[in-house]
Design a protein that fits this description.
The protein has 311 residues and is of the alpha/beta class. The chain has helices at 3-16, 19-26, 30-44, 60-85, 99-106, 109-115, 167-173, 221-229, 239-248, 277-291, 303-310, and strands at residues 49-51, 56-58, 90-97, 118-125, 139-143, 152-158, 161-165, 187-190, 198-202, 207-211, 216-218, 234-238, 252-253, 264-269. Belongs to the LysR transcriptional regulatory family.
């Protein structure tokens, strides 16, 4: 039995929750996938999966096996790369990002894939933190502070956001001149976990938390963007989504002297030990992509001045 191959198959079955789905991903037959997992269980003398005619679930032993299997796969890949494959990444990297950054990266991944013809990237749009080990995610970009001390974290940039609304909405409801005016407006809240009824603003010297009574709460930034453009109210949007519409006049930047507070953009991953070259290649490319955008490189540049530079 090829134990490395069997471990890869087991991880894919655990991730997809299905022998047939794993078979499709691995380009194998469903019986072949089942045989590999059964052979692995026989080799380890333990059951890794509960099976029934309608469901599949990890046993407690199977759950404990996942992080160990990932370490074995990473070690094997690192060994292969050190033996002469360095310089060309191969295999798949699962990268989880918030929606705005996912759009930003999807415009830029072609160059990375051209440079590494054997590399593939699965780009996952996720607004809330994932279980990286349990879900087999190699890298995740998170916004704000990270409380999980078990993860390796690397700050790669800063968010820039704008408080915006359409001209039509402002003509109908009036333009807020100060933060306290927001209590009289329809607010659209982008919920990423935590408090969805408070917005944080900073002028560089002071931070102010403003309580809002949102008319619409959405857990996806792209949906918030569409709702704002439809005239549903006022929202805080990432510059990735907002700047093109501000430049064309479809959206108006509000209260520019006291913009939304900036958050650290942090790259999180389970371990730096035995990191495969394919993962390092994506990290390096991701960091370089962040540096291309002046609105993500500095923690001190103000939104208003940055936008003025763009114009």
């Amino acid at each position: 039995m090829d134990i490395v191959c069997a471990l890869r198959t087991f991880l894919r079955v655990a991730e997809t929750g299905s022998f047939s789905a794993a078979a499709v991903d691995l380009k194998l037959t469903q019986p072949a996938v089942s045989r590999q997992v059964s052979a692995l269980e026989a080799h380890l003398d333990t059951r890794l999966l509960h099976r029934s005619t309608t469901a599949l679930a990890l046993t407690s032993e199977g759950e404990r096996m996942i992080p160990m299997a990932l370490k074995v796969i990473e070690a094997v890949e690192a060994l292969g790369e050190s033996a002469g494959q360095v310089g060309t990444a191969s295999g798949e990297v699962r990268l989880s990002v918030p929606a705005p950054l996912g759009l930003y990266m999807s415009d830029r991944l072609a160059a990375l894939l051209d440079h590494h013809p054997q590399l593939s990237v699965e780009l996952l749009f996720r607004e809330e933190p994932s279980d990286l080990v349990g879900q087999g995610i190699d890298l995740e970009v998170r916004l704000g502070n990270i409380a999980d001390s078990s993860l390796i974290c690397r700050r790669i940039g800063w968010t820039t956001a704008f408080l915006v609304a359409t001209p039509a909405y402002l003509e109908k409801r009036g333009t807020p001149r100060a933060l306290e005016d927001l209590s009289h407006h329809d607010c659209i809240c982008y919920k990423r976990g935590g408090d969805s009824r408070s917005w944080l603003f900073s002028n560089g010297a002071d931070e102010v938390a403003v309580r809002i009574a949102p008319r619409l709460i959405v857990n996806n930034a792209v949906a918030v963007h569409r709702a704002v453009l439809a005239g549903a109210g006022i929202a805080i949007l990432s510059h990735i989504l907002a700047v093109p519409d501000i430049e064309t006049g479809r959206l108006i930047s509000l209260i520019p002297d006291f913009p939304p507070a900036r958050l650290p953009i942090t790259l999180a991953y389970p371990s730096r030990r035995n990191m495969p070259f394919r993962v390092r290649a994506v990290i390096d490319y991701l960091v370089a992509a962040m540096r291309e955008d002046p609105l993500m490189t500095s923690s001190s540049a103000s939104n208003a001045s940055s936008l003025a530079e763009l114009e």
